[in-house]
């Protein structure tokens, strides 16, 4: 059905997409370190290690500093919850879809990690990646990360609710929202197939008033809430690690 709408609305969608690309406010990625260690806990115990991989939202577009984005606040929260130091690494780039993120990983230095966090999919929507290709790319990225890092658990962030995207006009906003929902359901279904994978929905972020000034990326409060939700899932994985199978 969505394909039929795409055909029927094709000229309008193409024109609106071109307009959006030409007029969208382009914000930089958050400044600051892309790795570090958070927490003042005992140094006699090895730190927990987390790796965050994603697109512009993972890179902190919408806030000025990494200290107000996702990765660094997540590490601080996780340290407070677990009583362990947390070593974190961020590998993210604006504009990448899932396949391009895998290419970026292949070219990058990736440190060992206990837990993975992914935030991808929006650019798969805008580049019109076919659903089956999207989930294949996500699985390939997950397998590559597991082999490179030895991670035991993974938190998968769902796609944002693009149906409320203030920067996009209708019917483009409606179409992007429906496409994002389709990919998101596939992602959630895949994540649910293994106990060492957890899915975090972004449906709660459907509030345009809390978004960044580009009306596209998360604002500070949304980044804070996102970090809290991911922290909860990693902490749950960490507490159950003794009897939980490692990532397949």
Description:
It is a single chain. With 248 residues, the protein is of the alpha/beta class. It has one domain: SGNH hydrolase (Rossmann fold, 3-Layer(aba) Sandwich), CATH 3.40.50. It is 44% helix and 13% strand. The protein has helices at 2-23, 71-82, 98-107, 122-126, 131-149, 172-191, 220-239; strands spanning 35-38, 48-54, 86-92, 115-119, 153-157, 197-200. Helix 3 runs parallel beside helix 5 (131-149).
**Named CATH topology:** Rossmann fold
| CATH architecture descriptor | 3-Layer(aba) Sandwich
- The name of the CATH superfamily reads SGNH hydrolase
Residues in helix, %: 40-55%
Main-sheet strand order equals 1-3-2-4-5-6
State the shape: globular
Features:
single chain, 7 helices, globular, six-stranded mixed beta sheet, Rossmann fold, 248 residues
Secondary structure elements and their pairing?
Layout (H helix, E strand, L loop, with lengths): L1 H22 L11 E4 L9 E7 L16 H12 L3 E7 L5 H10 L7 E5 L2 H5 L4 H19 L3 E5 L14 H20 L5 E4 L19 H20 L9
Parallel strand pairs: 2-3, 2-4, 4-5, 5-6
Antiparallel strand pairs: 1-3
In short:
This protein is α/β, with parallel strands linked by helices and 248 residues long.
């Amino acid at each position: 059905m969505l394909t039929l709408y795409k055909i029927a609305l094709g000229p309008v969608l193409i024109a609106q997409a071109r307009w959006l690309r030409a007029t969208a406010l382009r914000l930089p990625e958050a400044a600051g370190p892309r790795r570090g260690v958070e927490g003042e806990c005992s140094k006699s115990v090895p730190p927990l290690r987390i790796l965050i991989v994603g697109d512009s939202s993972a890179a902190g577009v919408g806030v000025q500093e990494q200290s107000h984005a996702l990765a660094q606040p997540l590490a601080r929260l996780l340290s407070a919850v677990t009583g362990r130091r947390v070593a974190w690494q961020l590998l993210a780039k604006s504009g990448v879809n899932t396949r391009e993120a895998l290419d970026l990983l292949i070219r990058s230095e990736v440190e060992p990690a206990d837990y993975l966090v992914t935030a991808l999919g929006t650019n798969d929507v805008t580049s019109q990646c076919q659903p089956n290709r999207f989930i294949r790319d996500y699985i390939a990225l997950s397998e590559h990360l597991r082999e490179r890092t030895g991670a035991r658990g993974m938190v998968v962030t769902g796609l944002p609710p693009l149906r409320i995207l203030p920067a996009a006009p209708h019917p483009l906003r409606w179409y992007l929202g429906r496409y994002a929902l389709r990919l998101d359901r596939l992602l959630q279904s895949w994540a649910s197939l293994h106990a060492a994978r957890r899915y975090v929905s972004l449906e709660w972020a459907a509030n345009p008033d809390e978004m960044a000034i580009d009306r596209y990326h998360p604002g500070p409060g949304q980044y804070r809430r996102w970090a809290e939700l991911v922290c909860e899932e990693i902490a749950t994985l960490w507490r159950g690690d003794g009897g939980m199978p490692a990532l397949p």
